[in-house]
Amino acid sequence: MVSTDMTSLAQYDEEQVRLMGERCILVDRDDKPIGYETKKNCHLMTNISQGLLHRAFSVFLFNNKGELLLQQRSDEKITFPNCFTNTCCSHPLNDPLEIVEKDALGVRQAAQRKLGHELGIPKDELPLDQFQYLTRIQYLAPSDETWGEHEIDYILFFQTGNKDVTLNVNVNEVQHARYVSKAELQQLVADAKDGKCLITPWFRLICEKFLFQWWDHLADLSSHVDHDTIHRL
Known about the structure:
Blueprint: H1 14-19, E1 23-27, E2 33-38, H2 39-43, H3 45-48, E3 54-62, E4 68-73, E5 84-85, E6 88-90, H4 105-119, E7 131-142, E8 148-159, E9 174-180, H5 182-193, H6 201-215, E10 230-232
Parallel strand pairs: 3-8, 7-10
Antiparallel strand pairs: 1-2, 3-6, 4-5, 4-9, 7-8
Enzyme class: isomerase
Catalytic activity: isopentenyl diphosphate = dimethylallyl diphosphate
GO molecular function: isopentenyl-diphosphate delta-isomerase activity; metal ion binding
């Protein structure tokens, strides 16, 4: 049963509290939708410990040099503040545009929306057919004693053409964004292991298990597409 306890949000940023009212898509272990719940309730560890699971996505946006757009989450974020992570990570919402299952269209439309919200990338620079859905992962990670994540996460790659996307960073969401090479990200991951910086748990898992292999095949990722498997990490 979903807990709707009175965990206070009074100490958090007003805009981040507002976003906690968004309705995330609840799924079972096979990623079948079973309803919806608020973002707040989906991220309470009291609910996660009872198995509450929701749908998410992680975007990896590469420029024409093969560099990944990395972000550092704002210190206003309620979960995983100040952590480095992939280009954009969020949730499709219980909205007619974002619940579409066919070809992961709902997830791709959610990704387009959030790239605009977090990084200010104009919609016309993010054609839906350029989002490549590779696979899904399931993971569970606490942010602190109160908040955490338990998601089935769709992995989306987006590769720009000859012109980089336009960035107009929303500082309430993202404190810093920059492109990194594969070697630079490998150093960041090593620094995180040494406690020199923070990275989000899903990003760490994806880096350790998949990302650097995928990075070597940006020209043709077809052999890495796996829509049947949900990798339990």
